[in-house]
């Protein structure tokens, strides 16, 4: 299989959903019907002797767009104008239309909103129930546990562990995903250790203080605390009641420190990207400043989904999520009307989507998060010492816990460079 070209693999019944849909799943400049045809161009159903039956291909594309609820369902639209969720539906529709024997889905829900994620997972489960093999590659542990019949962990080219459905130990699974060894490997390593020369071990113990100091310095230099917090929140999340109790305690400490009877009613947030600061304002003064981390490409305004930039502009808190894998999450009203207008001008969204966004802003609700402009941008925990997010604003867990009790829905948030 490894040495076969794509056509031979497809002929054997292999379909593939790539991890990067924009680079390897679609051609953004092609229309939807042209993207639906990718991989089918040699099929007699769509033409013969190098002549394309455009009527048949458009009919085929319209059926796929309808069956997989790709929006908007205009087959003449450029694929690059779709939201990430609809681009993924397009790829999924095309690959499942091959009626494959094996579907390899590499991170198929990466960057998708909740609705699109659930849709993709349902389709994968339906394919499995129809007797097709589905190889689901993902780092989303909860999704893997939810749909997989068998879970195999891969780390640096090795397979350190395997689990069957109903017998999955989440902590052990997360441990193996981070490079930990299985029980059998641990036993093997201990046997090897017992054969080491005593002098080597004594030498290591003597050098341990120096090594430890170097490791601690490196740990903080590369943002090790953030990594630790993210892994902890991801694989060993605190129960919601514990998060809220911790937040209530931190909020009470804040109110006592500033001699406040309760959360001020005029709170607003100011995010200064270049300074990596979030300021809490009330009564015309800055009550407190927090250290933050930004998107992996921190400079410049956010323009589209997947650009890993943090937006710039006037927003408000439109949702609160205490079950977030990033500890606590305050969702922001991105895209706002200015972002939407820019997106329509640059043909990333259509006029109907622009109206939906503006209507949501008028209602002080959350705007659509499943457009080509991106969404699900917010303020959350899991560490604020490095720029590691996909566009969100990250704080340490204790800081977001403190803010959680102070920031209600509708709180204004200004983000500047």
Q: What is the average per-residue confidence, as pLDDT, rounded to a whole number? A: 84
Helix and strand succession? HEHHEEHHEHEHEEHHHHHEEEEEHHEEHE
Count of domains: 2
Radius of gyration: 25 Å
Shape: globular
| Distance, first to last CA | 50 Å
Level-1 CATH class name of the largest domain: Mainly Beta
Q: If strands are numbered along the chain, what order do they take across the biggest sheet?
A: 10-9-8-15-11-12-13-14
CATH superfamily of the largest domain: L,D-transpeptidase catalytic domain-like
Q: Indicate the CATH topology of the largest domain.
A: L,D-transpeptidase catalytic domain-like
Number of strands: 15
Structural class: alpha/beta
Explain the overall architecture.
Helices cover 41% and strands 17% of the residues. With 417 residues, the protein is of the alpha/beta class. It has 2 domains: 6-148, P-loop containing nucleotide triphosphate hydrolases (Rossmann fold, 3-Layer(aba) Sandwich); 240-416, L,D-transpeptidase catalytic domain-like (Beta Barrel), CATH 2.40.440.10. The protein has helices at 6-11, 21-25, 32-37, 54-67, 84-96, 114-129, 141-147, 170-177, 183-194, 198-221, 224-235, 240-257, 337-345, 351-362, 397-404, and strands at residues 14-17, 47-48, 51-52, 102-106, 133-137, 150-155, 158-164, 268-272, 277-282, 285-291, 313-321, 329-332, 378-380, 393-394, 412-416. The protein is globular, with a radius of gyration of 25 Å. The protein contains 15 helices and 15 strands.
